[in-house]
Design a protein that fits this description.
Elements lengths: L2 H21 L4 H29 L3 E5 L8 E5 L1 H24 L8 H20 L3 H19 L5 H32 L4 H5 L5 H19 L8 H7 L2 H21 L1
Antiparallel strand pairs: 1-2
Helix pairs in contact: 1-2, 1-4, 2-3, 2-4, 3-4, 3-10, 4-5, 4-10, 5-6, 6-8, 6-9, 8-10, 9-10
């Protein structure tokens, strides 16, 4: 079993934990245990996947056709994505262990719903790292932003809601810039696959425009100045284990996006 196949099993476990938490609404104690243990196992498999790919060194590519040419599901795992998978998975293991006790304070306060969004957040981040199609990249990027936003406002107090609204606005402003950059490259290449983007030769003016759009779009997610105002407000508002992933990993996704484009 290669690294990409291992990562697929990791993603399946995160999605299972997410959906199971949804069906366990009102059964918070059981949801906490199931979500924490399942994501822990998913994280361990993710660690093995990252190490396997870094040791092997050969870029892995898998492509799955869809009825729409622009939305073919293309996965690509290279050393950079493997390193990021390894880092995320290590943090997931730590956060999952911590959540088994920490989330008890949320029993009766929506712990199962938090498990749903937490595992969806993890799955979208991990899948994003190996996605090699701009359409699905944006879908996963939005999934990551929305699920983390729900975690930010989970406490439902004035501070968390205000922090969540600021985060929501800046995150989606960044997404719009990224979408425009991808559409410009897609128009020139005739495809939304990153493989075609990597071989694309743009005019200096268009290349500069695409770079600036992507830089500020992903920079908003990375918390770069002057787009950082959401970061010190949103991260503390989220539950502690979610905040650890947001500050430890999610902001790095922005840097990863800049490097990928």
């Amino acid at each position: 079993m290669d690294a990409l196949q291992l990562l697929t099993w990791s993603l399946i476990l995160y999605l299972f934990a997410s959906l199971a938490s949804l069906f366990l609404l009102g059964l918070d104690r059981l949801a906490i245990k199931l979500s924490g243990i399942t994501s822990l196992v998913g994280g361990v498999i993710g660690i093995i996947s990252g190490i396997t790919q870094l040791h092997g060194g050969v870029t892995l590519v898998a492509r799955f056709a869809t009825p729409f040419d622009f939305a073919d599901l293309t996965l690509r795992m290279d050393s950079l994505s493997a390193f990021m998978v390894l880092i995320i998975s290590l943090l997931v293991v730590v956060c999952s262990l911590y959540s088994l006790t920490y989330m008890r304070e949320y029993e009766g306060k929506g712990a199962a719903a938090m498990g749903f969004f937490m595992n969806l957040f993890i799955a979208s981040m991990v899948a994003l790292l190996v996605m090699d199609n701009a359409f699905w990249f944006i879908v996963l990027f939005e999934m990551m932003s929305l699920s983390s936003w729900f975690l930010v406002i989970a406490r439902q107090d004035k501070t968390s809601i205000n922090a969540g609204m600021l985060y929501f606005f800046i995150a989606h402003a960044g997404s719009v810039l990224i979408m425009i950059a991808f559409l410009l490259m897609g128009r020139e290449s005739g495809s939304l696959d990153f493989a075609s983007f990597r071989t694309l030769s743009l005019s200096p003016g268009l290349a500069s425009a695409v770079f600036l759009l992507a830089f500020f779009g992903f920079g908003a997610k990375a918390g770069m100045m002057p787009l950082h105002s959401w970061l010190p407000r949103a991260h503390p508002a989220a539950p502690s284990h979610a905040s650890a992933l947001m500050s430890g990993v999610m902001v790095k996704i922005g840097i990863f996006g800049i490097l990928k484009v």
